[in-house]
Specification:
The complex is a heterodimer. In chain A, a hairpin with a 3-residue loop joins β7 and β8. Helix content of chain A is 8%, strand content 31%. A five-stranded antiparallel sheet of chain A has the order 6-10-9-8-7. A two-stranded antiparallel sheet of chain A has the order 2-3. Chain A has a two-stranded antiparallel ribbon with strand order 5-11. By secondary structure, chain A is mainly beta. By secondary structure, chain B is mainly beta. In chain B, strands 8-9-13-11-12 form a five-stranded mixed beta barrel. Chain B has a four-stranded antiparallel sheet with strand order 3-2-6-15. The radius of gyration of chain B is 32 Å and the shape is elongated. The termini of chain B are far apart. Classes of the chains: A mainly beta, B mainly beta. The interface between A and B is large, with 56 and 66 residues. β4 of chain A pairs antiparallel with β5 of chain B.
Chain lengths: 301, 300
């Protein structure tokens, strides 16, 4: 409940006018106020509005207007709910939209009533760009030739998780080196055997050996490096990886309030003040969440 | 499953028919006696503001509280509570839907509801209303069950049907029927948690008194202190026009509209034997001398 305090002066509603019509002369010949006159309101707060002549102010219907103390209020309605939600399959209404609205973007529109699943499907696309492969260390070679260039073994998987990921060179020539990061090993194997012509998973990098890219570093200095192109194929959203479901709230969990979890992007760099600091930090790690909280010598608050 | 919360604060566009206004008055804060609450008719004192271009459309949020000076014209403290209107009735029955025995609810008899409030009990109109419960045995102290309320999630006219459960303990179930005068309301929480399936939340008992309240707006309480003086009236004494009649010693203070605000008699108290002045006195004059009108005095 909202609590409002106000202080209002009654003087604002007190009549201070003395109409000439209520003045009389007494026996001593002195002008006084006829306090019995019905137009006498001096010092009073009348129940109905009166004008400076002591007459009641009438509305358009000829009725007296109630004298009121007016206070403006702003009344609101809070809608708060908190609970556990769960996805539930549902049968959409037959009255689905025949086509998406103009410039429909499912990411900005969110759920649109009557929109069938195909509104939310997007086709595959390819992301391309240029980069400096000097920052990419997933693909390495410990052997170099007489010119100091790395000697790669095509299709050698250098990933730490070789069962699920493929990092390595898939093509090597005099002009360029083609390698993949984060590809599907099965797909790479199929590509190696010639079963497929392109590996769609992961990011493909092509570093040219005779082409350079000129750039300016953060200090304004001209730099150059081997030109490296990358591309990544996105499979898009289709009926295999997207579905529409209703989000329902479980009634029995209504009113379940969770301990507030404060998340912030403010970090305090506590530094390493002395040789015991790292041990002091370690002593504060009580749970696995604390490891995340204290990552990098920083305390997240 | 996901955890989620949602909420907003919207300007209330509640009808004054769904509002209840109570007030109390105390001349000062030292009053020992208990506070007596009186009612005001919201239709007369609470005026919703309409949108600038459409006088038939409520603006929402902004209301003007018009307090009659006949009631609020005394110096002191007025506490005004503006809260959602309460509907008091009794539970006719507690039952389930005949086609969905898991759905428990309360049945109310529309004929017990005051005529002007019966439209609130039409299908779907009670959704979001809050139900609070009165004790079934009164006279044992507090008549209201404190800290207990339920929210209505649906209401529909329904017909009670006696169903045979295979023994003598026949219980009633309800089927939706718009010609009935019985209203079946579902409440939340009314289902048992999965961790304890038998712990069905209390939703009421037949013939138990309940208070049904809308949740169309957040209650508001105003404490209005009526005072005789404020900055403006104090400024009269400092900055407004004043006259001092040298003939009769009447000292007049005018408000900024040159109306007589206060009058005082100025005189000296002298020793009756020696005639030596003892005091200079300024005494408020309660019978106003109308000849001290500022415009009359200065119009020469």
């Amino acid at each position: 409940m909202e609590y409002i305090r106000k202080k209002i002066s009654l003087e604002n509603y007190t009549i201070r006018s003395i109409p000439k019509s209520i003045l009389i002369t007494n026996a001593e010949g002195k002008t006084i106020i006829d306090e019995s006159n019905p137009k006498y309101f001096y010092g009073k707060i009348p129940d109905y509005r009166v004008d400076s002549n002591g007459d009641f102010i009438l509305n358009s219907f000829g009725q007296k207007i109630l004298n009121t103390i007016n206070i403006d209020l702003y009344i609101t309605q809070d809608i708060d709910d908190m609970g556990l939600f769960t996805d539930k399959s549902f049968v959409p209404s037959n009255a689905t939209l025949p086509f998406p609205p103009t410039n429909f973007n499912s990411f900005s529109y969110g759920r649109l009533a009557g929109a069938p699943l195909n509104f939310y499907l997007t086709g595959s696309n390819t992301l391309t760009g240029n980069t400096d492969d000097g920052y990419l260390n997933q693909v390495r070679s410990y052997r170099v030739d007489t010119n100091g260039n790395a000697i790669y073994v095509p299709f050698l998987n250098t990933s730490d998780d070789s069962k699920n990921l493929f990092n390595g060179v898939i093509g090597e020539s005099l002009n360029k080196t083609i390698y993949k990061i984060g590809s599907n090993p099965i797909e790479v194997s199929q590509y190696q055997q010639g079963a497929i012509s392109e590996i769609n998973s992961g990011v493909e990098f092509t570093t040219y050996k005779k082409k350079y890219t000129k750039a300016i570093d953060e200090y304004g200095k001209n730099i150059s490096f081997f030109k490296t192109e990358f591309k990544s194929n996105s499979g898009g959203w289709d009926i295999n990886n997207e579905s529409l479901s209703a989000i329902i709230k479980k009634e029995e969990y209504l009113g379940v309030v969770f301990k507030p979890e404060v998340k912030s992007v403010v970090f305090i760099n506590r530094g390493v003040a002395d040789i015991f600091e790292r041990h002091a930090i370690l002593s504060e790690l009580k749970t696995t969440n604390d490891i995340d909280t204290n990552r990098g010598g920083k305390v997240r608050i | 499953m996901a955890t989620g919360n949602y909420g907003t604060i919207r300007p209330a566009d509640v009808s004054v028919e769904d509002v209840e206004i109570l007030y109390s008055y105390t001349p000062n804060r030292e009053l020992i006696t208990s506070v007596e609450l009186l009612s005001l008719d919201p239709a007369e004192v609470l005026i919703p503001v309409t949108t600038p271009n459409n006088t038939n459309e409520i603006l929402g949020g902004l209301y003007t509280l018009k307090l009659p000076t006949s009631v609020f014209g005394s110096k002191g403290f007025y506490s005004i509570i503006i809260r959602p209107k309460e509907i008091r009735t009794t539970i006719q029955d507690c039952g389930v839907l005949i086609d969905n025995q898991d759905v428990k609810g309360l049945a109310f008899d529309m004929n017990q509801i005051p005529t002007e409030l019966q439209n609130r009990f039409e299908n779907g109109n009670l959704v979001g209303y809050r139900i609070e419960y009165l004790k079934e045995v009164t006279g044992t102290g507090q008549d209201k069950i404190q800290n207990l309320f339920r929210i209505i999630t649906s209401n529909n006219r329904a017909l009670p049907i006696t169903q045979n459960q295979g023994n003598d303990n026949a219980s009633q179930a309800y089927t939706f029927n718009d010609n009935s005068t019985t209203v079946f309301c579902t409440l939340t929480p009314s289902s048992a948690p999965s961790i304890k399936p038998n712990a069905v939340p209390f939703i009421g008992n037949p013939l138990q008194g309940v208070i049904i309240t809308n949740t169309f707006f957040n209650p508001v309480m105003l404490e209005i202190e009526m005072v005789e003086y404020d900055d403006e009236s104090l400024a009269y004494a400092l900055y407004s026009n004043q006259t001092k009649s040298l003939d009769d010693g009447i000292y007049t203070i005018y408000n900024f509209g040159n109306q007589i605000y206060k009058q005082y008699n100025l005189f000296e108290v002298k020793d009756q034997f020696t005639g030596k002045p003892l005091y200079e006195v300024r005494e408020q004059k309660f019978t106003i001398d109308p000849t001290k009108d500022f415009d009359d005095i200065t119009n020469f």
